[in-house]
Amino acid sequence: MSNKYNAVTDQIVERLVEIVGEKYVLYGDAEKLEPFSHDEVAESQYAHMPDCVVRPESTEQIAAIMSLANDERIPVTPRGAGSGLSGGAVPVHGGIVLLCDRMNRILEIDRENLTVTVQPGLVTNEINDALSQYGLFYAGYPMSLETCYVGGNVAENAGGGKAVKYGVTGRYVLGLELVTPTGEIVRLGGKLVKDVTGYNLLQLMVGSEGTLGVFTEITLKLMPLPKSSVDLLVLFRTAKEAISAVPTIMTAGGIIPTAIEFMDQSSVRASCEYLNESIPYQDAGAMLLITVDGAHEQQVEREYESIGELCLENGAIEVYVADNYTTSERIWKVRRNIAEAFKVVSPHQSLEDVVVPIAAIPDMVDGLGEISGRHEVQIPCYGHAGDGNLHATPVMNPAWTLDEWHEKLPRIMEDMYKLTHSLGGMISGEHGIGHKRKKYMNFVVPEASLEMMRAVKRALDPNNILNPGKIVDVNDAS
Amino acid sequence: MRFIVPIKQVPETNAVRMDEETGTMVREGVESIINPLDLYAIEIAIRLREQHGGEVISISMGPANAEKAIREAIAMGCDSGVLITDKAFAGSDTWATSYVLAAAIRRIGDPGLIICGERATDGDTGQVGPGIASFLDLPLATYVGKVEHVDNDVCRVRRLIESGYEVLETDMPAVLTVVKEVADPRLPTLRGKQKARKVEVPAWGADDLDTDPNRLGLKGSPTRVVKIFRPQVTRQCRKVTAVDEESIGPAVDELVEFLRQRELI
């Protein structure tokens, strides 16, 4: 197997035009193709231009594109909204970017089976907008839900803020229709709550980062919409106190909150200053944002009260309560704008996604502080404390040159990943590997596991044309 | 000093849908919140109490569930609240609302400062604050961005006006309507919420207030809503494009000519 791919020629473009129509093939205009050369990963060295962008509207069109690409040995990179954080949608070998934005419909809301079937290009938020009138909801909640597509969520097995209680995207994927790298249309799963009929290929596809198949229909499990939801913003003097409160909340409180988000001092400050937010953050060394939801207002009230009391007993300075959309938005904004706020400090940052067992979070936070000091780099740390997934984000020291940053970052990352591994963690909880973290895979994944991954990829994509260069290199076989 | 803050419960604007046929707001199933602009009034009242002592009383005229808005105000730090509710008040315009609120303030008695939000996000009139001042025959300062000084005799405020600021001094008691820059509202705390749940919020109806029955509710409202419609926005856009160095010159010329013809430059 070799990485020698064929270029997209005028003849190939003609055949793509025959499949999807002229209007839906972007070719030859560098300015128009540029947005498809990157995702939300900030560093430009991870970008790569596609030869063309194709926007199909049906499964059959995707099958035709894949079969053409497979015959002609042209790499294909599926793409959703491009909001990924690991370079998953970047066409590192050029070729075709397969954009699913036109496949953005809800195909069926099945209220008897509690499922919804959607196309991959649907904006995630729109699922719940459509479902709320039936008192139902889809529990997947990536932080970028207003822009990201559900197809990308499934491809990356997106997590997000509510994973403590509701788990990640994969828990809700019941069925997939997909096109294989060789152009076959396959259905996996269906509307079944239980299904052990053979290997669990469905969940193999979830989180496969667009390397094993192109999703064309997704069936998701639904749940009754919680009628009441309250957010608490809890201020602590130190990160240690905040983090130590998390296991207490989960165990002593006897309540699994919907979300427990952690924000360290620098994250809170940057975001509050960026938003002009007047929450008294000056005294706070860290904050927790805790969400409780449920079917009954009184029950939610009891639960948030006992969580709030536990926080106060464990050293919290103040507990703020947001029980309506306006105040909830106000406090969630602080959490959601951290990354944006640090772009003001420096646009050069590496949004990381380490995940450790929840009991190891205090050690992780300590260790990150030590790495930050040793490398003289700010590493704001925020994320999903309730599930151990921390977005520790080295931000370039403004005193450094770009060259210094590029030289130092890999060493910072190595230290962070080694620390994570030593605490029993992994290098990505929800953003994925893509090509951004590929070179660090062997820090945490044994060679035998890597070889299993390569074997799967080789079996399903014999010509290595579907999103090549991501997760593992098939040619690295030992 | 006694600070009285009249507040209004409004639909959460994020959730508002319009009935396309009638042109009215669909209120069913929509979460109700304190009018966001009233939060600034609550905040400045609490801060003034923190500086000068006294009490903050929030009052709201509305349906029975407007009690929730009052409890939220108490959770933020108001000391107590009064709900003003009666079927006879239904359909009140800004005149009839100001009339009833003024009567309620008279019953509470001994006001120092009456602090209102600039306007409500649903009705958008900004008339109730001035209306209360008028019915109580008190001095009024609208669009207050800063309270510079308060004592028992005098209140000095900085008002936002079109060309800048204006500093006014009024006798006390007085009515203020405040704008956002007056103070950033705080969030309700857990302790505040717990207190708010326990506090008794009295409900006053028409019989509890010294009012003329003919001046209440729809019957007592001089305003009639004749028609609700969406204004047509007729903006004509002309695009001037420059894509490279060569086209910048002509594009600038075109834009300058366009502005000159309209005597804008």
At a glance:
The complex is a heterodimer of chains A (478) and B (265). Chain A is of the alpha+beta class and 478 residues long.
What would you say this structure looks like, in words?
The complex is a heterodimer of chains A (478) and B (265). Chain A is α+β, with helices and mostly antiparallel strands and 478 residues long. Chain A has 16 helices and 18 strands. In chain A, the strands form four sheets. Chain A has a seven-stranded antiparallel beta sheet, sandwiched between helices. In chain A, strand 5 (106-110) and strand 6 (115-118) form a beta hairpin. Chain A is globular, with a radius of gyration of 23 Å. The relative contact order of chain A is 0.12. The mean pLDDT of chain A is 93. Chain B has 265 residues and is of the alpha/beta class. Chain B has two domains: 2-215, Rossmann fold, CATH 3.40.50; 235-265. Chain B has helices at residues 38-52, 67-76, 94-108, 128-136, 190-198, 245-261, and strands at residues 2-7, 9-11, 17-18, 25-26, 32-34, 55-61, 80-84, 113-117, 140-150, 154-161, 164-171, 174-178, 203-204. In chain B, the strands form three sheets. Chain B has a nine-stranded mixed beta sheet, sandwiched between helices. In chain B, strands 2-5 form a two-stranded antiparallel sheet. In chain B, strand 10 (154-161) and strand 11 (164-171) form a beta hairpin. In chain B, helix 2 packs across helix 5 (190-198) and helix 3 crosses helix 4. The longest helix of chain B is centred in the last third of the chain and has 17 residues, at 245-261. Chain B is globular and about 75 Å long. In chain B, 41% of the residues are buried. The mean pLDDT of chain B is 92. Chains A and B meet through helix 10, strand 15 and helix 11 of A and helix 5 of B.
